[in-house]
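Blackboard transcription, Thursday session:
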Amino acid sequence: MENPWLQIPLEDYEGHMSASNVQQLQMLDEVFEVVLNELSPKSLCVLGSTAGNGFQHLIQNAYDRVVGIDINFKYVAECRAWFIQDVPNLQLICADLNEIELTDSVFDLVHAALIFEYVDVEKLLSKIYKWLKPGGVLSVVLQLPSESLSAVSKTQFISVKILEPFIKLVEPDEFRKEAEKLGLICEEETEIKLSTGKRFVKVYFKR
Ligand SMILES: C[S@@+](CC[C@H](N)C(=O)[O-])C[C@H]1O[C@@H](n2cnc3c(N)ncnc32)[C@H](O)[C@@H]1O
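(Written on the board underneath:)
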């Protein structure tokens, strides 16, 4: 089966995520800025990098290596068009995170915001563990379940509805257990509540 993300035009994704009843594009942009400021990585990898939401925070900083990975080649192409000139040492990869292999022990930071909801958690976590340098950090943003709100908010952008049967919210305690089994240490957890009522958690795990 084709990955449903391949069927969502970028304009629909960004329109949906920035709609007044969603507001997640802005939240994720701010979270990425906070992560960069708090962790000051020299080498980083962004999983599910879309068209580079938040990548403007990478401009004019000295990074040894910045990698962005996304399955949607149109998102990757747009990200390249916007940022390849201005973000030093940027490499953009169009690939399925369930399949891709990277070199071990290369990143100070792996940033994974709202991506574990769409992949094989155990498999990706064990790969991230290997991709991180010893002492490197995985920053994760997970969407928390809500009794009153649907996992995929309703907006005018119909194509996004294709995610409804596919999204699988990840229980933070279960996620922590999986990460700890691999040897990742949970360092800090911050809850984020939007005015829409949706709640998220940002967690740092250190290798
Ligand atoms: C909710 S968005 C991520 C938001 C983004 N991290 C941010 O901070 O704004 C999910 C992204 O993951 C990508 N994606 C979903 N499944 C994927 C997979 N198996 N491999 C690679 N990318 C995937 C989608 O194409 C989409 O761009």
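Lecturer's comment: The chain has five helices and seven strands.
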